[in-house]
Write a structure and sequence with these properties.
The protein is an all-alpha fold. The chain has 2 domains: 202 residues, no CATH class; 182 residues, no CATH class. A two-stranded antiparallel sheet has the order 1-2. Helix 10 runs antiparallel to helix 11. It is globular, with a radius of gyration of 27 Å. The termini are far apart.
Length: 528
């Protein structure tokens, strides 16, 4: 195919501009696997809030180059008195129950540090609380600038836990994307959810986003502009403005027939969504099981098989990123044609679901223990409880099935109402659990060490001094994050921190979360 001189000239100009942009270092992300889809140089006239380039000379006497030719450069503007992008949220205070000034007198950097530090694994109630906090609409910290720093930190935490749909919704709530850093996140969400063509259109329509060569070649190819994509890659190679791995991947992406029979290059570390999508397009998708949870969304596409769908959904449900009904739909989609691993789980789930649907008490008693055991294998007890606890509570179960049904009731959203269905009179453990569900354990015997750590929080323990300045300054969001961190510390063996964290949640008005978390601490085998 003959080379179009106009395309060649355009590719050369784009490559030169990308080289200039690459001389400065882009701001670091809180998560290290974001695709380098855009270039936003630190300094040299770049406004990180908008991604616009002022094109100031980098050295004395150097002539500035405009990315817009003879057109005026982009100018960053802000409206006096306009709401800060950091205040954007999906859940208003009347839904979350949080104060409108959630961050109080806290500073943006301190709030971001607290968000970045929290690590929640294994306690669904705290995972749900964190999700609510990240999506909450609230006033921005007093020192918040126009760079969307807190909004970006919230989106990064959503990406970290795999909540891509929520991250996308928060990005959309922030309005039209003109910030390079926000676009990087939107681009990766699109790559992992199969909406990359829409993201490429945005990249094409907003030149100030300054896409990198890898992203530009990818998007040109996605738009079937193979000639321009190839020219851009050739120019980048000639200028030495592309890495060896990028060259290898993009060359195969543009013309896979040239490399037929050759081994694929080893993927770089870390794998970014853009790299993953290129491998996938080449018919060599990288396994997502060892990648961050966000990558599991890529396995929910129609191109993935049923087994991959299920395993991805299990991983995301465990992180609280997808609803239990997603699991129900996948587990009951069809009859497993094999056995072992995930298929044993599907089989046990389907057999139990069938028995419960028929209302056959005897068969439910036989099948519930195995189904529950298989859910425990992948730490999905709470989604299982959400799906089935109320239906099970209506059946006159006995023995082990009755005990499991009661525990599932305590792990479900209806825990307070179902706590009254104690299966065995005189059982000290069951009595303590019922006390937690009502918020009062006074006079009840604590059956184990975890219960002894939990009990004081529901029997008058005082707030510790490290929470006092946060509460006094109205920094409720930070206090909640600190309480989460304490409970997680307790889960890893520092049991006094369980008392501190649960006490703080109750003092902060999060009684329901405190009770449900305490029940999960007792019932879920998550102790580190």
């Amino acid at each position: 195919m003959p080379i179009n001189p106009a395309c060649l000239r355009a590719a050369l100009i784009l490559s030169v501009l990308t080289v200039q942009a690459g001389h400065a270092e882009a701001p670091l992300s809180a998560i290290d696997w974001l695709s380098q889809s855009v270039s936003a140089p630190a300094g040299n006239g770049v406004d990180h809030g908008t991604g616009s380039v002022a094109n100031q000379p980098s050295t004395p006497g150097e002539v500035a180059v405009s990315t817009n030719g003879a057109l005026p450069d982009s100018v960053a503007v802000s409206v006096l008195g306009a709401p800060s992008p950091d205040s954007v949220g999906l859940l208003p205070p009347d839904v979350t129950g949080f104060p409108h000034d959630l961050w109080g007198l806290g500073k943006t950097a301190e709030v971001i540090a607290a968000l970045s530090a929290v690590r929640l694994e294994g306690l669904p109630s705290l995972q749900a609380l964190l999700l609510t906090l990240l999506l909450a609409e609230s006033e921005a910290p007093a020192d918040a600038g126009a760079d969307s720093a807190l909004l970006i930190a919230r989106i990064d935490k959503l990406l970290e836990i795999g909540a891509l749909e929520q991250a996308q919704a928060l990005l959309e709530a922030a309005g039209p994307i003109t910030s390079a850093e926000l676009f990087r996140r939107a681009f990766d969400v699109a790559l992992l959810t199969g909406a990359e063509d829409r993201a490429c259109e945005t990249m094409r329509d907003i030149p100030s986003l300054a896409p990198t060569l890898t992203a530009r070649v990818f998007c040109l190819a996605r738009a079937d502009d193979w000639n321009a994509a190839a020219l851009t890659l050739q120019t980048a190679k000639a200028l030495g403005n592309i890495t060896e791995i990028e060259d290898a991947l993009l060359s195969r992406f543009l013309d896979p027939d040239l490399f037929e029979g050759e081994d694929m290059p080893q993927p770089p570390k870390p794998v970014t969504p853009l790299v993953w999508r290129i491998y996938d397009a080449l018919g060599e998708p990288l396994p997502t099981a060892t990648l961050p949870p966000a990558f599991a969304h890529a396995e929910l596409s129609e191109r993935a098989g049923w087994k991959a769908h299920i395993e991805a959904a299990e991983r995301l449900a465990k992180a609280g990123a997808v609803a239990p009904n997603v699991l129900l739909g996948l587990y009951t989609q069809r009859t497993p044609a094999a056995s072992g691993g995930v298929w044993d789980r599907v089989d046990a789930f389907q057999n139990f679901d069938e028995a419960l649907t028929k209302g056959d008490v005897l068969i439910v008693e036989q099948r519930l223990p195995l189904a529950y055991a298989r859910m425990k294998d992948v730490e999905l007890e709470v989604p299982f409880a959400t799906l089935y606890a109320e239906a099970l509570a209506k059946l006159p179960l006995t023995g082990d099935a009755a005990r499991i049904s009661y525990e599932l009731g305590l792990l479900s959203p209806a825990y307070q109402r179902l706590a009254a269905n104690v299966p065995t009179a005189g059982d000290a453990r069951a009595a303590f659990l019922a006390g937690l569900a009502t918020g009062s354990v006074a006079g009840l015997a604590a059956p184990d060490s975890m219960a002894r750590a939990i009990a004081p929080a529901f029997d008058g323990a005082a707030l510790t001094e490290d929470f006092t300045p946060l509460v006094d300054q109205g920094r409720i969001g930070e206090a909640i994050l600190l309480a989460m961190g304490r409970i997680e510390s307790g889960l890893r063996g520092n049991l006094p921190d369980v008392t501190i964290g649960l006490t703080a949640l109750r003092k902060l008005g999060l009684e329901d979360v405190a009770r449900h978390t305490a029940l999960e601490l007792m019932l879920l085998e998550r102790r580190g």
